[in-house]
Amino acid sequence: MTLEDKVHGFRLHALRRAEELGNVSAACRELAISRTVFYRWKKRLWAHGADGLHPKRTSSRPGRPPLLGPVEERAIVAAALAWPTWGPNRVSLQLARQGIHVSPSTVWRALRRRGLGKREARLLALGGHAARTAGLLTERTRRALRRTRHVAVDEPGELVCLDTFFIGKLKGVGQMWQITACDAGSSYAWARVIPARNAKESALFLTEVLVPAFAQAGWKLRRVLTDRGSEFKGEFDQACRDLGITHSRTKPRHVWTNGFVERLQGTILHEHWRVVFRRRYFTRARQLQASLDAFLQFYNEERPHQGYRTQGRTPAEVIWGAVVAAKEA
User: Fold this and answer.
1) Which class in CATH covers the domain with range 160-328?
2) Where would I find the H helices in the chain?
3) Which pLDDT tens digit goes with each residue over 97-112?
4) Is the pTM higher than 0.85?
């Protein structure tokens, strides 16, 4: 049954109910409609019969017809690139000399749709076109066209990003933190639930989790990147020196430098913790760790990944590729 059929049936029911009660006001109060609407329906019933109570079909008003065809739009873009420093008014006047009459506002909207609304954008587009066709490449265009990685690494272990975040204060468990590591060369993730955010826990995570994991996979952990938090000083610094690992820190107020692990922690928060906390009740820290380990296994081995580091592969395929290849050989 369509919505129109339901509306038609309700209107017929209202008229029948008024006849049964013998009182229009009582029927209208019962059905929560006004007497004006009731008598409007009754008038349509007398004039057109039961079919007259079907809701009227209202067609939408036609939209604004397109004012700019593809030929005119291409002409606008061509004129803007031919004279990239001109504004919409001058471009409109130039096109009028060619027999194409468009207003300055139409010119501006067309350029904005193409990302050419600003003079700098038109100059940059012109520079890129000249670089591809005539080999003319200015330093400014070179910087704009160059696609550089945020952090360039060649293999796993060359750079591992670490950070911590507060999971929450759980009843019966207490305050719990998470220390997280992300390998910049493979996107492989490690994490541990810790009761406190301090240098001792960070050092244990480095020596008990990260270093053995890379050694097992056949890689050497060479450098770690952290923020300037106190949990990455003292014992953590000493552990890095003992293991021959370079410890780099981000600049103050430059958290995006450690964006690999920051984004990973956001993924773990949104895809794991905010889901499992609505599904179960945790009473032990080891339950939290077991739940986190299960998610990390899915993240590293099964979850689809995209980006220039993995290129469709899972992090496990990248970091364990050499070991698997050696076994197959």
Assistant:
1) alpha beta
2) 3-21, 24-31, 35-48, 70-82, 88-97, 104-113, 119-133, 139-145, 199-205, 211-217, 235-243, 259-268, 274-276, 285-301, 315-319, 321-328
3) 889 888 899 999 899 8
4) no
